[in-house]
Amino acid sequence: MTARIGAGPLRRLVVLRHAKSAWPDGVADHERPLAPRGHRDAPVAGRMLAGADCLPDLALCSTAARARATWELASAEWGTPPPVRHDRRLYAADAADLLAVVHEAPPEVKTLLLVGHNPGLEDLVLELAGDGLDDTLDQVGTKFPTSAIAVLAWHGPAWRDLAPGTALLTDVMVARGRKR
Question: Could you report the per-residue pLDDT of 55-106, keeping only the tens digit for each?
Fold first, then answer.
């Protein structure tokens, strides 16, 4: 299957899996914090997005502590972060649920950032991508690790028109910070 060229402006869906989280005893999954590596990687993700000219007009972020912390650390790397909507529906969501939330984005948003969790994010990227540049589809299909970023491009009049197989996976990046 190949991505269809649609009518309308170029839009990008940027998918960011939360940074590496910790597993402290007695802490509910939703409240798990970032691990030290996550604290190093999330700002790198922010710098990578800026360097790739993928700064969003709007961010949709899971309410889980590790996703919120990833968003805060990544967006702190930008001069003026865009508005963010924390949405409980993004926590433990499958690809269909994630796409339903994306469909609600305002039409004036050209670049949308989605911060969430696997396996839903990986499944969403693979479902939306009708094609990919270079080996991007293989990269995501093999592993979409913490702090991974996928960039999907498509043309459409509104986000509600984004459908399976209609996007081109243009880039896959994995943010890794250095130990101090």
Answer: 999 999 999 999 999 999 999 999 999 999 999 999 999 999 999 999 999 9
- Buried b / exposed e over 75-87, threshold 16 CB at 10 Å, is bebeeebeebebb
**Structure pTM?**
0.94
DSSP per-residue string spanning 76-129: TTSSSPPPEEEEGGGTT--HHHHHHHHTTS-TT-SEEEEEE-TTHHHHHHHHHE
Report the C-alpha dihedral over residues 116, 121, 122, 124, rounded to 10 degrees. -170
Strand order in the sheet with 10-17: 84-87, 58-62, 111-116, 10-17, 148-155, 167-174, 129-132
- Contact call for residues 42 and 148 (beta carbons, < 8 A): no
C-alpha 155/C-alpha 10 separation (Å) is: 5
Q: What is the token pair recorded at 101?
A: 């939330």
Token pair in block for residue 67: 């996703």
Task: Tell me the average pLDDT across 104-109.
Answer: 97
- State the Cα–Cα distance between residues 73 and 20, nearest whole angstrom: 13
